[in-house]
């Protein structure tokens, strides 16, 4: 029940903060609009978003333990992370489209159902030492990525316009907060219990959130039931899956190997065909004209680079902390002790989320996002220059937590403000995909830099590799500042 304790405190804290700031309605304010935007609805949306994000990263710190239990290589065990990301990247835009057409509550419930079913299968696989079963369970879990666009769509449909910004900020923050908590929780769990408990915790949260969907308002049926763009969905699946496969397996298969070259070629052809198909289809899965618009394109670029920097950091920090001190750096920490070292990232993300909600309503989403990106770049630069003592990593992690709490909480408002209401699901879905792709890119870029700076046959990576990787991550995150510089200070929803 590791995640229930964390999410219980998180949701209660978020609810109190949102209530004080006027985001959620008291019951008497919701008269004539049954449960719309009320405390139960907001709490369910926060819980659902948090649970999906936490379950995505829950295996990250436990991959070496899972590799030993399943008797597979560490690269093979990384598929337990990649499978979730692949399925999530594919399911998210489809769920956004379905939610816009058929109702976001139905899509939200379906996503949570996939999270529950996948968690149960993964737990059975982990308990029985059945790697294929655990891998399949992780892929089914990943289908819950559609929870994010559904949650944004429900918020926009039910929360009053003057309070929508804070709720969207809270939902956006859950992506980063949940991911950080998942990574932190994994170490202690596998230290005291079997790895199956990682997935049982996800199951408990999924069932709790699924039960809460009954408290969400059900919008009336819409008359414009457009067909689903099946060719576009298949091409998008091939393009995204190929990209993530290339990123995740490039170092293992060899960047110039036939397998990688073939995968990259399929990715490129699928991406080009997807663009051609979507621009010629009357009812496309993704309206590329909207995504390439003057307001949404900069937000997408900024989301990608910030995600790259975040996942680079959270990949590097545990590896650095667990490096034996005999190497001249590192602390030789266990997985559980490493979790305590990076816990400030999650803790300060939680603290930053309600702060971001308030700041967004006063200074605007763009300035809040830029503040987060600036702090993130500074903290990564600090890690590149000073990582000789545990307190330095913990302090930089705290600043990083604030940085990404602000950035992820505000980017949702930037996305929502860049499109009209009918395209909220698709736009937020694609933004979630960019976070997933950015995470995969960040992890692989960081690993490649460290490996490239390490002499052949060395027992441990070179410290210079970590310095270079942190520095590159700092520069990448800094690029988010000019990316959104021309956006309006306040992100007002478009009416087109």
UniProtKB/TrEMBL annotation:
PANTHER family cross-referenced by the UniProt entry: BLR6921 PROTEIN, MAJOR FACILITATOR SUPERFAMILY MULTIDRUG TRANSPORTER MFSC
Record PROSITE patterns: MFS
InterPro entries for this protein: MFS (IPR011701), MFS_dom (IPR020846), MFS_trans_sf (IPR036259)
Chief location bin: membrane
Entry membrane topology: Multi-pass membrane protein
Protein name, UniProt field: MFS transporter
Segments traversing the membrane: 42-65, 77-95, 107-124, 130-155, 167-190, 196-216, 228-247, 253-276, 296-321, 333-356, 368-387, 393-416, 437-460, 466-485
Natural source organism: Streptomyces cylindrosporus
Protein localization: Cell membrane
Keywords: Antibiotic resistance, Cell membrane, Membrane, Transmembrane, Transmembrane helix, Transport
Domain Major facilitator superfamily (MFS) profile: residue ranges: 41-492
